[in-house]
Specification:
alpha/beta; Aspartate Aminotransferase, domain 1; globular; Aspartate Aminotransferase, domain 2; homodimer
Amino acid sequence: MTVDNSYGMTYARHLDDVDNLRGFRQKFLVEDPELIYVDGNSLGRLPRATRELIRGVVEHQWGERLIRSWNEGWFELPERVGAKLSKLIGAQEDEVIMADSTSVNLFKLALAALRFQSGRTKIITDDLNFPSDLYILQSVVELAGAACQLVVVPSQDGIHGDISGLKLAVDDKTALLTLSHTAFKSGYTYDMVAVTELAHRAGALMLWDTSHSVGAMPIDLGQSAVDMAIGCSYKYLNGGPGAPAFLYVRRDLQDQIGNPISGWMGQKNPFDFDLTYQPTTGLRRFLSGTPPILSLAASEIGIDMLLEAGVDNIRAKSIQQSEYFIKMWENNLSHLDFILKSPRDPSRRGSHVTLGHPEGWRINRALIEDKKVIPDFRRPDNIRLGFAPLYNSFADVYEVSESLLEVVEKGLYEKYLEELPEVT
Amino acid sequence: MTVDNSYGMTYARHLDDVDNLRGFRQKFLVEDPELIYVDGNSLGRLPRATRELIRGVVEHQWGERLIRSWNEGWFELPERVGAKLSKLIGAQEDEVIMADSTSVNLFKLALAALRFQSGRTKIITDDLNFPSDLYILQSVVELAGAACQLVVVPSQDGIHGDISGLKLAVDDKTALLTLSHTAFKSGYTYDMVAVTELAHRAGALMLWDTSHSVGAMPIDLGQSAVDMAIGCSYKYLNGGPGAPAFLYVRRDLQDQIGNPISGWMGQKNPFDFDLTYQPTTGLRRFLSGTPPILSLAASEIGIDMLLEAGVDNIRAKSIQQSEYFIKMWENNLSHLDFILKSPRDPSRRGSHVTLGHPEGWRINRALIEDKKVIPDFRRPDNIRLGFAPLYNSFADVYEVSESLLEVVEKGLYEKYLEELPEVT
């Protein structure tokens, strides 16, 4: 077969040479330089500086300062890290706070939205949304009463969102439209301005789950007039496994809605130990219990690095990488039953590209075991390749494509079990 | 004045010499040996082994193994640590799981209890309960519908629980009785068997918040036929700041109640990515979002140490320490306006002792600044002294008492501001 060599390793190396972000890779722990990690959209790499920071939090802040550390920074940590994160998503500093998990934050905000405007009983979402978000929304509408319902609008084709379908679904009974900004499977990215406007035209609130966008592309929640947003910090933000999530509520809405999980961290004067809950002003009322300090502290370094790199630079490189990969797919992989399951238009695509293949599961295994390439598999047949511009090189992109080619051409996948193991 | 010297430092040193737990202190990082830390009931000390463990979790599990660590232990971590913890509280291994914060867990279980038996619309608690628990319960009854209500039974005297009062309040409309097993302020400890039985006699479920008991005294949830329990791991369990909490549900109840925060970690086959929530069997359904792995991992060492020490030994030393302190109070402090605000009966008292004093706030400041003693202050006038048998010596107890005496006799507190600062 013929391989188009104009997109070969020489080309990749050239792109790496002129890459203005190339210096960032060395800021991460890369213990095995031969490992090609394209799963930063699931768990970002460890920044070297995070190692030192965590050592200090454990040994100095906890070990030596003990309880005093609560007054020496821990209490303000959810707001302080949130304020930094706000700069990545076009929010004001007091509009973002770190709290709980993405699921718990969605629960709090979606329930608050449903209770905000009486007479509005529907939550609208789509089937591209992360299943975990759907699970939470199912519970939220059930809790909110028999009259409430969740409407899941089908996507166009499992890949692209259907804005016309959403427009039809959002009506004057809709309390909330909530979507993943970038879909976890296909990587489809909604037009945030247009969709938010669509919700507002019907008088509904708009909540974006930015988990698969934040740190990978510019987001402007303020400019887009977004009401609420959530997102996780362990993907492109490199905050570490299960690092606390964040939530955003636009400033003028903050004091109008309540947190259903009304814990002591959101209490007006928590150390007065009043027996009656009285929420503090601002976003802090959306805190619930005591935050996990080690995991929360770890989330700061990755945000600093993204701010230093500049999210426009990240996005430019991300598009260049995914376009490069898709070009390789067109030239070398598309005739081998690999199907592009991400949008072709880069402006509608996040930083990961998904390929479908009838032997997807076994190919994924072979990539990991035989080629030292770590992608992510999503049933039934999706190989998800996440390009994290801070540490993935263009050579990585080339190697991923070549590895896919070799695994199929040489039949390296054939030795693995055909059956997908039962996951429980 | 006369000080009773039979309880002096010589006596304390003797008790330390014959203490069968004395070897445990060296397993903690004690950077400043002169600091007397009696706030382990708020934030436990750092076990030395936790430093090494966290380094491994960060550098090896996250840094090197990356996403693979989810299949190499992270997914099972909430259950694995929970199974260890179960041995401290008389539960079966599959009855305890680590999850979220104490507040979020209370929210989940209290709401589940309220939805469990139709026609039962009340939650009963008392005013000794941690205010944070009351805040959550207020929200839970509000969410559960207009017919639901929270009844807060007054304590006898702000120190002791009123079991007769609870008995009167719990009726055939009661869904749940929930109390702090050991009260955060006075340290009063309820008779778990008797109170649980009281709830059951009325057909209500019983939920204990064990935050101020767990790791400080034997708890037998199974023997006491308790339905649900929650607790935190950063106090006597030494799990680190904001370490994830735990929840217990007795086995036969687990599949009968639902988690209102129905996240992907509790889904039957989470990697099937079904669009409809279907809870898995057992306690895992009470997980919601992705757990904060660094903080969760840190919680294991302290539990191991308590299991090694034996919770009966811990309790024996704890009682010996608080009895010793109270004897010192009687002899040397009671005539200086220090009031005992904890139960006098050790069987009804946790591992902390609270003294009230009109100058409590300033005395507390002087203890910290002038005497290197770190207690905890609880408005309006409570100095809370938590004795953690794993690392507090009898000499510590003696020094605390002597420091209180000196601060008052020498007027060391007078230089501090009389006004309590406004805490927000």
